[in-house]
Amino acid sequence: MLKLIKKVAIYSVIAASLLTSANADKTKLTMYYPVSVGGPLTKIVDSMVYDFEKQNPDIDVKAIYAGNYNDARIKSLAALKAGEPAQLAVMFSIDVYDLIEQNAIVSFSDLAKSQEDKKWLKSFYPALMENGTTLGKVWGIPFQRSTIVMYYNKDAFKKAGLDPNKPPKNWDEMVSMGKKLTNDKQWGLMIPSTGYPYWMFGALAKQNGEVLMNGEGTKTYFNNPKVIEALQYWKDLSSKYKIMPEGTIEWGTLRKNFLSGKTAMMWHSTGNLTAVKKNATFDFGVAMLPAKEMRGTPTGGGNFYIFKNTTAKQKEASLKLIKFMTSPENSAKWSIGTGYIGISKAAYETPALKKYVEEFPPAKVARDQLDFATAELSTYQTGRVRKILDDSIQAVLTDKKSAKDALNDAQNQANRLLRDYK
Amino acid sequence: MKLLQKIATYLLALIWILPLFYTFWAAFHSEKYSANFDIFAPLSIQSFYDAWNQAPFLHYLINTFTLVTIILIGQMILCTLAAYAFAKFDFYGKSVAFFLVLMQLMIMPENLILENYKTISYLNLVDTTWGMAIPYIASAFGIFLLRQTFKTIPTELDEAAKMEGCSQLGILFRVYIPLSKSTYLAYALVSVSYHWNNFLWPLIIANSNNVKPLTVGLAIFAAPESGVQWSTISAATLISVAPLLLAFLIFQKQFVNSFLHTGIK
Amino acid sequence: MRHVYGWLLLLPGFILIVAFTHYPTVTTFINSFFSNQTVLKPKRFIGLDNYEYMLHDPIFMQTLKNTLYFSLTTVPLSIMIALAMAIFVQEKIKARSIVRLAYFTPTILPMVAVANIWLFFYAPEIGLINQVLHYFGFNEYNFLGDRDLVLGSTIVMTVWKEAGFFMIFYLAALQGIPKELYEAAKIEGSSPWTTFTKVTFPLLMPTTFFVMINALINSFKMIDHLFILTKGGPDNASNLLLYYIYDVAFSFFDYSYAATLTMVLLTILIIISLIQFGLIEKKIHYK
Predict the structure, then answer these.
(1) Residue C166 CB partners (closer than 8 Å, separation 6+)
(2) B134 and B249 share a domain?
(3) Given this model, what pLDDT does residue B52 score?
(4) Distance, in angstroms, between C107 CA and closest chain A CA?
(5) What residue numbers bound the domain in which B6 lies?
(6) Where in this chain does the entry annotate a coiled-coil region (chain A) (predicted)?
(7) Which among C2, C12, C17 is the nearest to B81, CB-wise?
(8) What is the CATH number of the domain that holds B82?
(9) Domain A147-299+375-418: which CATH class?
(10) Which residue has the higher pLDDT, C285 or C95?
C-alpha cells in the first residue's frame, strides 16, 4: 500500500515538473473578470483571449470568470492576500479607491512611458475615464462600460394610445405615460432595486441636478435636499403614482419581466441590449433616461486593472493584453455582442460597428448619453458606503423609513466611515 | 380521521415533489414556456445543450467527484483509526481528547470561515481540491459513529484474533472493519451527500474552473445577475443534481435501511 | 505502550480537528480585541472597541434577530412536519414507497439548486405562485421584495428542504417502538389521537431532542440560499449572521470585526450545546 502511494507520488511529481518545464518560457497571466448582465458574455471573452494567444504565442492567459462584480473583487483581492498570482482583472470601475488603499494596483500613467502609450491613454471617451482617474493618475482602463438606458415596449405604447416613437422626456411625462401604460396585466415602469440600487439612484439624483459624492472619494452628499427629493420620487412611482410595483424589484429577473410584457418600460444597463434584442417578441425601443432638471446617468461597469505584485515582464504582457482587448476592433465586437458601449470614438468608426449602429440605432443611445453622464458612486471604503446607501434605498422602498430619515442616517454612517480619509 | 390522514399524506407528497416537477417542465421546454403552462407545448432538450455549452459542467462534475472521493477516503482512514483508539485503548488524556473531538459537532468548519481561510492560504492551498477537503477529513461525527459501533463488538473476538497472531492493526482490519460494514455504508452515504451539496466553503476556496465543484459552478452560472434564461438554469440544475439523484434512486433501500440499522438516533 | 499506541492512532485526525476547530476558535477570540490590519494601518490592541461597535451596529442587531427567528422557526416546523411524514408512511397505504421518496427527495438537492428553483416560484408577476394567485383573482405578492415576507419565504423553502431528512430519524425511532404497546392501546379502546399523544410521542422524545439540537446547530450555518435569492436584502430583512460575517470578512476585508461577529455565533452554539449536556445530565439517559 505504502509503496503504491510512493510510486504514485513520484510519478505525479515527475509529470508536474514536465508540464511546468514545457511552459516555462511562456509569460503566464491570470485574469479575473465579472459578468452581471445576460447573454453568453464569457464566450466572447474566451474567444478574444483565444485570438490574443494566437497572436502572442509567448503569452499564456488564464481568464477566470468570477461571478458578479462583487464576487470578482472578492476573488481577486482574496487571491492577492493569499499570495496567489493574479496579474490583472476586470473589476468594478468604482473599486479604484479600495484597490489603491490596499496597495494592490499600479497606475497606467506610470506604465505608459512611450508617446504611443500616452496617446493610447487619451483615446477613450473622457466620461469613461472619470471613475478610473484619481490622485492625478489613471488606474483603470475602460472595458465593459455602460450607462443606464430606458427600454420600452413600443407595442404597449401603441396599445395605450401613445406615440411609440416618443418615449417620456422628463419625470412628469414618465408618470403620465406610465399611468396610461399600467393596467391589470402590465406595469408602466420598473426600476430595479436589488443588485445595484445605488447605481439607479445615481441617475435619479443627477437628473435632479446633484451628484452623490465628491471627486476625491472622501465625502458623500446623501442627505442633500435634491438627493432626498430624488429618492422620494422613486418611492412615489409605486406608492403615489402606482405605475411601479411596491417593494424591491429584482435586478436579475427584470429583463424577463420586460420580455414577457409585465412592464412597459424598464431602466437597465445597456449591457443587456443584445440579450433583449435577441429575445424580444415585440417591437421595442431604447431611450435616454428622462430629465428632471437635466438628463443624467452614471456610467457603470468594469475597468481593467493591473496588480502590483507582478513582474516587469508580466506587466508588459498585461498591457499588451489590455491594449488588444480595448482595440477599436475588439471594442466594436464586444459592443455588438453585448450592448456595452464602444469605449472609444475609433470603435464607432470601425466598419462593423458603423454598420451595426446604422441598422440598429438603439445601439448608440448609451454612447450618446455619455454627454450627460457622471461618475458612478465611488469612495474610500466603497463596499461599506455602497451597502449603506443600498440598504437605505431599500428601507425606503419597503416602507421602513422616510426618504429623509433614511438618507440622513446614511449620511451619518458614511461620514463616520470616511472620517479618516479627509 | 383515516380519510383526512390519507388526503394529507398525498397532498404533502404532491407539494414536496412539485418544485422538482416544475424544474423538469422548465428544462424540457423552450424558454417561452418556462413561466407559461401549456400541456401541448413542444418538448425540447435545447436547454440542456445550451447549459452544457455555456459552462464547463463536465469539469465541475469531475471536480465534485474528486472532492467527494478525497474527503471520503480521508475520513474513512482517519476516523477509523481515531475511533479504534477511543473504543479499545486506554491512554492518558483520553476523555479530554474525546471531549475536544466532540466539540467539532457543535462548531463546524463553516462557522469559522475567516480563520480557516487564513490557515488554508497559509498552507498555500487556496484554489485547490485539498484546500476544500482538508477541514472536513477529520470528522467528529464519523469518529463518534464508528466508536459506538466498535464498542458493540465483543472483546472475545479480538482475543481470538490475537491468539492467531494478529497485530493491533491486523485486528482492526480483520475483525472490526468487516463487522462494521453497515455503519461504514451509512456514513459514506451521509458524507457523500453532504459534500456533494456543500457550497459555502468551496465557494471561498475555489477560483478556477479546474477546481470549482458543481454547486459553486451552478451558483455562478445561474446567479440572477447573469440573466441566464430560466429553462437553461433548470437544465443546469438538473445536470448538477442528476448523479446524486440517480444514485439515491438506485440505492434508496440501502440508504434508508442503513440509517435504520446503524442506530443514528 | 498502549498510551503511545492509542495516541498514535488518534493523532492524524486529532491534529486536523484542532487545526480547524480549536485553533481558529482561539485566534478568532484574540483577533476580536485588535483593530483591523490594512496596508496603511498596522493592527493594534483596542480592547472591547469592536464589541462596542457591534452593539451599535444596526445590521448586526437585525441579522442576529433574523438568525434566531430563522432557526427557532425552521427547526420546530421541520420537525413537526417530519414527524407527520414518518407517521404517514408507516401506514399501509398505496404507493407508499413513492410517497416516501417524494418526501425525501428535496433533502438530497443542494441548497443552491433549491434556491434557484424557488426563485422561479417566488418571483413577482412571472413567478409560479403569483401566476396561480393571479389566475384565481387573488392579490399578488412580492415575496422576495417585501420586507415582511422575505424572511418567511426563505423559512418555508428551508422547511421544505429539511423535513424529509428528519423524517428518516423518526422512521428509525418508530420501528423501535414495541408493537405490543399499540395492541394494548387498541384493546383499551383509545383513539388514534390518544395513542399518539400517550404512547408514540413520549417514546419519540429522545429522537425529537436529538434531532432538535443537531438541527439547531446546523441551522446557524444555513446561508447558501442568500447567495442566490436575496443577498440578505431588501435592507437586510433576510440577512443572517453568518452571511453578514462573510460580507464583512470577504467583501469589506474587515477581519477583526468579522472575528467579533464570529464570537457571537460561537457563543450561541456553545449555549445550545450546554443546554444539550445539561438535559442529558438531568433526565435523558437514552444516548
Answers:
(1) C78, C79, C82, C83, C211, C215
(2) yes
(3) 87
(4) 26
(5) 1-44
(6) 393-420
(7) C12
(8) 1.10.3720.10
(9) alpha beta
(10) C95
